[in-house]
């Protein structure tokens, strides 16, 4: 279950209410104060939160229960019987609270769900009774024999709990999708889509549930209705989240999602926000990190018009975020199919991207530069790209990218900087097979810069991949200008095998004191 990382004190403050409720339930034994006011009490509780808030409360409670069950198993291994019993009582209370809270805001839960609720409550009561007996005896032999029973009961509790949560999440996804499919109201549909997006942010498991329940089908239905045009951006954003799992990708292919995305991207009457979110879906489904994209046969049929629309979006982007989404989609497509590089060259994409890099308001982060240099690296395999690079002052840009540094020190940004450095060195190495590019790089003092990166781990963010790329680029350039190298550099960085030079440079980082 995906949880946002927060300060521990803040987490405690958020959990305090749940813990307090838990103690209340312990006293009241899950019974209402007054049976006459049940309906009124339920109405007040359900009106306090939106359905989405209630669901997040349920997920938080479920996370606490899951954590407690794990801790019980750990304490059980150490025979900490007193702790096992107190934690079992707490889990029992949390389970009852969770079930009561959920039943307070849902009105149409299934018989199967009620069945699992009763099974879970009964098994939790049995679990508590077992552990209570354990703290009342000191007979080691009896405790040993009861331990296996407790382990078995704990496993059953965890199993029933997991099945109940699965049913609850499926039920809530079904309710939201039913609202999306049946409502003609823009307001109600928007609320349902926003709640669905919020669910997708809880992790891949929820995305799988939504995909299996027809989420992709329902959302593309919205994207094909003009009356919901104002909802296209959030609908596409939700689709991008669902398509991070294989089930979402299969559904997208079945409902002809790619032609629909192509239509949206090429329709100039749509807003830039809609085009950007469509680009985000393309970036997601073509991600080289996914292992289940190769079945997207319809993508190849629509690739040319998609690539054309994405290049136009890069050229006309009004913000860094829009450029990032469009360029990320293009970068992924260059991995997805080699024909994309030919199309990009014909569209003059290299010139457009190089010009965009000169605008610091558009290409404003290492993440954007990572996408640009990825496209350049993949396009550099084409012989005809060399002249474009020189005309667009691309060699100078690649030299600047060699020394990409993070301004914040954020781990994600540092990793992006390393990728920029590595790919710019790779691009220089590939393009330097052309004498004109190699000479331009040499005139810009590329060889001393590459030597500095090889010699100084701090300059390359201590990255081995950057080192290998720099060694390869250096060796390619030295062929064109062997006189620009000192003998010691030649003996250590060029003459040996690449792996030996690599080991020599990495050993410079070690201290033998």
Automatic annotation (TrEMBL):
InterPro entries: ARM-like, ARM-type_fold, Armadillo, Insc_C, INSC_LBD, INSC_LBD_sf, Inscuteable
Domain of life: Eukaryota
Single biological process term from Gene Ontology: regulation of asymmetric cell division
Domain Protein inscuteable homologue C-terminal positions: 61-513
Protein inscuteable homologue LGN-binding domain segment(s): 4-48
Protein name (record): INSC protein
A Pfam family that the UniProt record links to this protein: Insc_C
MF (Gene Ontology): cytoskeletal anchor activity
Gene Ontology cellular-component annotations: apical cortex
